[in-house]
Amino acid sequence: xxxxxxxxxxxxxxxxxxxxxxxxxxxxxxxxxxxxxxxxxxxxxxxxxxxxxxxxxxxxxxxxxxxxxxxxxxxxxxxxxxxxxxxxxxxxxxxxxxxxxxxxxxxxxxxxxxxxxxxxxxxxxxxxxxxxxxxxxxxxxxxxxxxxxxxxxxxxxxxxxxxxxxxxxxxxxxxxxxxxxxxxxxxxxxxxxxxxxxxxxxxxxxxxxxxxxxxxxxxxxxxxxxxxxxxxxxxxxxxxxxxxxxxxxxxxxxxxxxxxxxxxxxxxxxxxxxxxxxxxxxxxxxxxxxxxxxxxxxxxxxxxxxxxxxxxxxxxxxxxxxxxxxxxxxxxxxx
Length: 335
Prior knowledge:
Elements: H1 4-10, E1 17-19, E2 26-36, E3 39-46, E4 49-56, H2 59-74, E5 84-92, E6 95-103, H3 110-117, H4 122-138, E7 141-142, E8 151-154, E9 159-162, E10 169-170, H5 196-211, H6 222-231, H7 234-237, H8 240-247, H9 254-334
Antiparallel strand pairs: 1-2, 2-3, 3-4, 4-6, 5-6, 7-10, 8-9
Helix pairs in contact: 4-5, 4-9, 5-8, 6-8
């Protein structure tokens, strides 16, 4: 926890220039992005790019997070965490403040994205997250404090990224940081040991959180309450088995959970295709039936038109014949 004197050192207004003691890079603070137990994150300007700068009174915490970001960089193809750009110290009021600079990841957080774009994106984003978690776990780490606030969805391409690695822990140790709603220990469903299943429990709770944006309070706790919450939301029912597997520790790896998720998505897709084909056939049948039923009506209309035409011709002929006969009569009288 930051003490008050050093906490005040880390609290800086927009426009402040942070100059590294060792590398001499200068960063202009734009605004605060977030605040936690281990420091404050700012949006800053460095030359022609925007960056995220985190400073803390706890040098060990900074070192730990830097090591995590370096480990992320070694994971081939993983984009879970931000890229590390610089590590340095800032001397202010004759006191040293440690900081590091990382890639600024821009976009809405996970819940904001789902609220705007809809639950159709749930499967896609969770699959991305699980793929990156698998890489992280294979390299000996557990994310720990996994929650929607730390997950940003970027555009072009649409991708889920993490902005805070403060809770990332080496496997086998005790989780360093956690948020109760996503913590299996809080729900009485497991320990706080850093292992893959701990992160997967959090993923299950994140899916629940997508359907309950304001979360919900713990009452009875355990699977009984969480199962009840799943069954109250239509958008969760399609993933019920996967969510429950994650909450109960039923998956041995993120890869296994991802495969189960893919299977559910494929089942949904097939179901929608069958439904669409069924609706198309029904509409086609109804259209054909309607067409058949309409044919007598079309025939009657044509018949009426034909009858009118015949009647008109008959009338003209009668008038013509009468006129001729009348003309002959008049001519006879005159002769």
